[in-house]
Amino acid sequence: MLYLAIPSMAEALHQSSLSMGMVVVAYMLTVMVFTPVCGWLVDTYGYRRIYLLSLGLFTLGSLLCASALTLTSLILARFLQGVGGALMLPVVRVVILKTTLPAEKLSALNKITLVGLGGTLLGPPLSGLLITAFSWRMIFLVNIPLCLICFALAKNAMPQQLKSARRVNFDITGFMLMVPALLFILLGLLGIGKQYFTGAWVVVFFIIALVLLYGYKRHQDKTLEPLFTLSLFRHRTFAVGIASNICVRIFLASVPLVLSLMLQLEFNYSPEGVSIILLSLAAGSLSARFLLQPALAWCGYRGLLLIATTASATLMYFLTLSALSDSLGVIVVVIFMLGVFTSVLYATMNTLTFSELTDDTYNAGNSLLILSQLLSIIISVTLTFSLLRYVNYENNVRGLENYHISFLLMSLGLFLCCFIFCRLDKNDGDIFIQRTQK
User: Between 271-289 and 105-133, two packed helices, what is the crossing angle to 10 degrees?
Assistant: First the structure.
């Protein structure tokens, strides 16, 4: 919903559309920073209590976003909203994983995604309608009644604590090493487009981040209860799942953003018109979920991941062809098919990541998965804004060619991601497929 509102927000706050990147990044950065804390909080204070707290913070953040009068106040409100979001998703996913039978885990995770895709399906048209009929502020206000409904439902249905949950000591040292490392990575990424920092500072930021990450690795080897259990990477499926989530999402996460900017700034579509077009992406994603389990049973994780990645990269390349991208009908068809294959790709990567984990490691694995996803989305968004600014201003490239370059780089990057999946064995992940078929 936010991508559609960027031009409207920029105009209302007297900013350029290409300078609104921090509005998007602020939320995801906060979620990324507070996700490591979530596992310790739920084990210490209970699942229901933390989930209700997350809903309260998200509601307050949404209200402040809707009332923001400057770009700075909007970014600060997005930080608060992100704290609520950071505590929300991990709780739901871990509760589902710990309360379902092994044979039902793949189906349960698929159902969670279906619910999320329902929101994705309704989001674009609802966002376009609210922006056109009222204001961009309504996309934040609409969250409030939804949060209140979730609050009432969770208060009665969410378990307070699970039997397998155990209280652990919070790794403060690890947290103090990891969080600054992530922040310096973000600062380096923001400087790539030369909007915030010079090239020398970018190098310094990345060097500091590497030093902090090395320090965390040394600390993790010496502590019994680290913030992130890096030993999970000894499982091939987990390592491939995390690596692919980072790399694939870097090249796919900004597709709705680039499409929204291209259609509004180059084709002069209204937010409502763009929302209908983006609806095809969500529709493709939703329809793919009903094909996921049969497709996995037919060609396995390795085969399906290679097929979906290649197909997504090819469809992305089609968007760089002027003869195709100038036709609205062709764009809708390509976007629908892209939604199908990216949805299959995301779901397959996620379930593969959990295939070798147990009840004792779901929390740590889930935190690492969410962190990798958020990090990749932040990288994707910051690089996209930096690339568009660089191509637009430094090379004096204008119009559709600006966006064609972005889609071309995304396509090439996705093709390279196929090498990650080649590390999988043919039977990796089959434990989920076999249990589902029984």
Answer: 170
Burial of 326 (0-12, 13-18, 19+ CB in 10 A): exposed
pLDDT band for 119, please (50, 70, 90 cuts).
Answer: low
What would the two tokens of residue 163 be? 């039997």
Q: Where along the chain do its domains lie?
A: 2-159+227-437, 172-226
Cβ neighbour number for residue 2 with a 10 Å cutoff: 20
Predicted local confidence at residue 436, as pLDDT: 42
Dihedral (Cα; 378, 139, 335, 312), 10-degree rounding:
20
| Continuous H helices in 46-171 | 47-66, 71-99, 105-133, 138-141, 143-157
Give the range among 75-84, 95-104, 338-347, 366-375 with minimum mean pLDDT. 95-104
Question: What amino acid is encoded at 100 in this protein?
Answer: T
CA distance 434 to 429: 9
Q: What is the pTM of this model?
A: 0.70
d(CA 428, CA 103) in angstroms, rounded, equals 16
What pLDDT is stored for residue 166 in this prediction?
Answer: 52
Give tens-digit pLDDT for 295-311.
887 888 888 899 999 99
Angle made by CA atoms 351, 292, 101, in degrees to the nearest 5: 50
Distance of CA 352 to the CA centre of its chain: 17
Phi first, then psi: give them for residue 9, nearest 5 degrees: -65, -40
Give the helix ranges, DSSP H, for 193-254.
Answer: 199-222, 236-252
User: Residue 65 corresponds to which amino acid?
Assistant: C
C-beta atoms surrounding 172 within 10 Å:
9
Q: What's domain 2-159+227-437's superfamily in CATH?
A: MFS general substrate transporter like domains (1.20.1250.20)
Burial class (CB in 10 A: 0-12, 13-18, 19+), 167: exposed
The kind and range of the H/E element at 273 are helix 271-289
Coarse DSSP helix, strand, coil percentages of the chain, rounded to the nearest 5 percent: 80, 0, 20
CA 267 vs. chain centroid, Å, equals 27
| Residues 382/25, Cβ–Cβ less than 8 Å | yes
